[in-house]
Amino acid sequence: MKTQLAASLVLMSLLLLLTIHTRAEVITLTADTFSDKLKEKDTVWFVKFCVPWCKHCDEYNLIFSKKLGSLWEDFGKAVESEDEIEVGEVDCSMSKPVCSKVDIHSYPTFKLFFEGEEVAKYQGPRDVESLKTFVLDQAEEAARKAHLGSDKEF
Question: Does residue 92 have an active-site annotation?
Answer without folding.
Answer: no
